[in-house]
Design a protein that fits this description.
The chain is 0% helix and 54% strand. The protein contains no helices and five strands. Strands 4-3-2-1-5 form a five-stranded antiparallel sheet, with no helix packed on it. The chain is globular.
């Protein structure tokens, strides 16, 4: 008998106020940008970061972030 197991993907858990690094694509390369976690939602993480000189809140996928 073959046992079928559901495919489980690991989703990192981020907590409010954790420091993270997000990578933005600029001028043909990825640039590391520091940010702070606002909250984690079901599929995305809301972070606060400075982009183009402005403070913004962005929704990103957890796999796009690394803890600092």
């Amino acid at each position: 008998m073959i046992e079928m197991k559901p495919k489980i993907s690991y989703q990192p858990e981020f907590h409010q106020n954790e420091l993270v690094t997000w990578h933005e694509y600029q001028d043909g390369k990825y640039v590391p940008i520091p940010g702070v976690v606002v909250r984690q939602e079901s599929e995305d993480v809301l972070i606060r970061t400075r982009v183009e000189g402005l403070l913004k809140e962005l929704r990103v996928r957890p796999e796009q972030l690394a803890l600092r």
